[in-house]
Amino acid sequence: MTFSLDDVDATIAPVRGFEGAQLASLPRGELLALLRVASEFKGSVDRLVAEVAGEVARRSTPDDGPNGLARQQGFASAGLLVASALGTAPSEGATLVRAGAALNSDSALGAGLREQELTVGKADLIAQAISGLEGDTSVLEARLVQAARVLDYRKLKLLCAREVAKFDALHLEARERRQYDQRGIDFTEDAMGMTHVRGLLPPEYAAAVKTFFDAQVKAAFQTKREQPGDTRTATQIRADALFALAMHGMDCTSPASGVKATIIVRIDRDQLETDIGVATCDALATPISLRTLRQLAVDATVLPMVMNGKSEVLDQGREQRLFTWQQRMALAERDGGCAKCHAPISHCITHHITWWSHHGTTDQRNGVLLCTRCHTQIHHDRWDINIDEQNHVWFTTPRHLDPEQPRILGGLAALTLT
Length: 418
Known about the structure:
418 residues; alpha+beta; 3-stranded antiparallel beta sheet
């Protein structure tokens, strides 16, 4: 690959247009424009450094032994050499090395980087997601690259986890068994007497623990809104709930403390019948295997939700102001959590798209799941929300935030490859 500064020159020109500007005096629109062009410039520089890092790695393979470029400079790997040169963390050096390898390949990742459609960070996220998968991953890679053009990093990370789990369903159970063997919790006490808790939980453990804690936090925040005075943070509420749970466990004849919660797991009926596929759990971002679903579903505190199965009537018109539990479950099937930012389902409330006070109905096509932050933002900035004929959720940006008012696809549809 010929070393060229063309991309850097092209992206630095718009940045130079702001040279000499007083940042504190820039209007919002111009500051956002500067952020956009500066980001594009940084992306071109990152790709340039990745290109160099790739060549350093090519000259530092294990086969080169002590004669490798990195080893000769006193580093165990090319990534460490690159990180040292940049004065950054080893993880960033490794990221640039992997991006450099992709740049020199004929893969979809390489093409996306060369055509400036992918940032180095997004390319590395996809590369790590598909690494280790068995079989031909070229189609999956191309589809993830296509999605990366329109998704931000966090949404792309969620999408990668979902799609890789589907692709690798046959190996998901084996991976979860390894995770089960790695489970553990450690307690260490510092000099000030505070105990640090650190651990690893496999999916079936994490589903129960996170569901319990999320329920306690949600209930405490709801009480705080109705009866101000509780100044605890979410982390403090979890600590209090853990202590209460331990005290109850040591004296189980006493009444249970905390808010009762139900673990909800979801599976497509066709996958359940064929015994091939993956399931999801409302408390977890990463899909789970059918084995873990069955293991969870034997407990009375777990509710299996089978898609496309028999359900209760969902549309209740104006007879009831609050959405029913069954309606919320149906909305969760469509939205998969906060329809706007994709926060977990357990963090969400059910929002009337047309407000109840404006004669909105309490039915599925007038409901959407939103986390507290997005719910506040929707009301404060007056975002428009629409449900199309395919039952997809769309958010329209308010004019005062973006004069072009782009429409943003939300819900699970935004995290589903087509």
